[in-house]
Amino acid sequence: MNTKELLLSVLMSGPATGYDIKKVLENEVSEVVDVTISNIYPALNELAAEGLVSCERVEQENRPNKKVYAITDAGREVCLHALMTSPARHRLRSEFMFILSFAPYLPKSRAAELLEQRLAEIDETEETLRTLGKGEGPLAKGALLPGQKFCVGLGRALLEAERSYIRENSHWLLAPDRDVEPVMELAAH
Hints:
Layout: H1 3-11, E1 16-17, H2 18-27, H3 40-49, E2 53-60, E3 63-71, H4 73-85, H5 95-100, H6 108-133, H7 146-169, H8 171-174, H9 183-188
Antiparallel strand pairs: 1-3, 2-3
Helix pairs in contact: 1-4, 6-7
Protein name: Transcription regulator PadR N-terminal domain-containing protein
InterPro entries: Tscrpt_reg_PadR_N, WH-like_DNA-bd_sf, WH_DNA-bd_sf
Domain Transcription regulator PadR N-terminal: 7-78
């Protein structure tokens, strides 16, 4: 999905300010899909010009005015069309896995560091998903829709499986005997 379609999908949950939308994209949507945050406001303006969102300026006392965006019926149709026709690819892209594929050439301490960092990231992401699972977050309106609940549960299951795999198999990367001498050690010879 492109940025505009992602914005429309966020607004399917209800009206929101640009700031709220940005937080959802950064903290929730970015955990699931690649998101470009830099062009949110221009994209919202384009969506408004196309009649896919409405924009209401709300005056605030002692604070700058804010704009609240809401999806229109036409925007809902465009969003649903995108959801119906976009390919539902599931990709596994991971710099973590790429670097670890070269673990035999790295000092064991680097492999251990990467594994520890990934386990910490898993814990952090799981906490985000727990929060989502409770229907909390910048745009939360309470209980999750069944599809959202399914995705949160699937995400948590994948993270738990990854954690278990790392813990059960890290010895492959950290074993004292190796098939290949690490490049870092070879350079010292």
